[in-house]
Specification:
The chain is mainly alpha-helical and 287 residues long. It is 81% helix and 0% strand. The chain contains nine helices and no strands. The longest helix is centred in the last third of the chain and has 36 residues. It holds the Pfam family CHAD.
């Protein structure tokens, strides 16, 4: 049995334990930060599922294992999106009475979303992850370290190639958001590679990737704000025409600003993909 292979399982087990702790904390105190941490914990596990499906594609069916986390992830995301718009309220330049109406609109949505999230938190149990945990433990013992190292690099190659492909298409908010998802997976798997083979140069690249991911995250928060503003304008038929026009103008201003940022993000993503070259494989088909 390979001695180093269980490091893959140890990394996964640590992430699983972390998620269970985050869910317990959110169940007791569903603060904005605890809900955010649950989302981050699930994203990390989903990235690892993607990696393990690449390592052992026939034995590990990723979609089946993601099922245990799907509802909790969705419910936490709905609350999180509303929290983002609430945090932006002080910066919204509209009459006081309109801001109050918009706040009530968001609060009503948040109350509904929180009730659904609370149910999902209560229903989630760590036992639901046991079948996946047992399988990953078995697979990590059967896979030699050299194979894991090659697959980690193949994964980085795959994510970098996906980011590059998104850049070549017509720029859009949706594609930038997709690139951010690839970045998250890349950072998670790069962190595992760092544990197996420490590398200062890779650590620097991963730090830059995390910073870029955070920048795109803040940018996406404004996209979420636009969607909530649009829903509010469509729902509140009592808004004076002048106020509605002012809100729509503000929407357009935000949208234009977000569009301008896309070019900057594409430049940064291109630089990052280039920096990853030393840790990519020449031909994924050969591994």
């Amino acid at each position: 049995m390979p001695e180093e292979a269980p490091a893959l399982y140890d990394f996964y087990a640590h992430r699983t334990h972390s998620l269970v702790e985050r869910v317990d904390a959110a169940r007791r105190h569903p603060t904005d930060e605890h809900i955010r941490r649950v989302r981050v914990g699930i994203k990390r596990l989903r990235s690892l599922y993607k990696l393990i499906a690449m390592i052992r594609p026939r034995a590990f069916k990723r979609r089946r294992h993601k099922q245990a986390l799907r509802k909790l992830f969705k419910r936490a995301g709905q609350v999180r999106d509303i929290q983002v718009s609430q945090a932006a309220l002080p910066r919204l330049s509209v009459p006081v009475e309109v801001k109050k109406a918009y706040r009530l609109f968001l609060e009503k949505r948040e109350n509904k979303a929180r009730k659904k999230l609370q149910k999902a938190l209560v229903r989630f149990h760590k036992k639901a992850l046991k079948p996946t945990t047992r399988l990953i433990r078995r697979l990590s013992k059967k896979t030699n370290p050299a194979t894991i190292d090659r697959r980690l690099r193949a994964f980085i190659d795959q994510e970098a190639a996906a980011i590059y492909a998104l850049q070549q298409a017509e720029p859009s908010p949706e594609r930038v958001h997709e690139a951010r998802k690839q970045l998250k997976s890349l950072v998670e798997v790069g962190t595992l590679l760092m544990q197996l083979t420490p590398d200062d140069a890779l650590a620097t690249v991963l730090t830059n990737a995390k910073q870029l991911q955070a920048q795109i995250g803040h940018w996406h928060d404004s996209i979420v704000l636009l969607h909530h503003l649009e829903a509010f304008i469509a729902q509140d038929h009592h808004l004076p025409i002048s106020t509605a026009e002012r809100l729509i103008a503000r929407q357009q201003q935000l949208a234009n600003h977000q569009e301008q940022r896309i070019g900057q993000f594409n430049d940064s993503l291109h630089t990052l993909v280039e920096a990853l070259s030393p840790w990519r494989v020449a031909d994924v088909r050969t591994i």
